[in-house]
Design a protein that fits this description.
It is built from 2 helices and 10 strands; from the N terminus they run αβαβββββββββ. The chain is mainly β and about 200 residues long. The strands form 2 sheets. Strands 1, 2, 3, 4, 5, 8, 9 and 10 form an 8-stranded antiparallel sheet that branches.
Length: about 200
Amino acid sequence: VAGGAPTGTPALIQGPFETAYFQFPNFNQGARKLRSTNLNAAYRFELQDLLGERASSWGNVGLRANVYWAKSLDLFADGVNRSDPLVGDDLAEYQVRMDLSHRVGKFSHTLQWLWIDGTVVDITVDRATYAEQSPAFVRPAFSYMNYFAAYDVNDKLKVRLSVANLTDTDDQLGPFGTAFDNGIGREFTLGVNYRF
């Protein structure tokens, strides 16, 4: 209820709304602007094409790379004036992902590598001085690996396995923890999909 009116109904009393808009003329005018570039490249080939007839039953290999660059992420409290630049703070400027996948018959698996750029609370800090900053204000760049596997038992049943943080990476994440995954470490997930 706002101004004596339930949500979705016209307000009979306009006073509270007039007061709110007079005191806060930028009310409900906030905006955000993201400028980024996302590059993807993928290639898949049969091992037989690379190694000859002896690899005719070895399946195929897929390569995939993704590079994400966040040029700017700005918040505008009034829709006009930039109030909070965020790239390098909550949002890393660069993120890279690479996948190496292999499929043979009903079995497929993927090894995935991710790298996330370091971030700082104050993005005006020179990147060259990150090492000198207090850990309370800096998260160093870090990388980790994941592994996924799946097997199609038949047309209806599929078994999946995923291992997040394959190497049990324990990198610093600011002042409130020492692991990017909240201390979980290596995580195994086994799933079964069945279609009725």
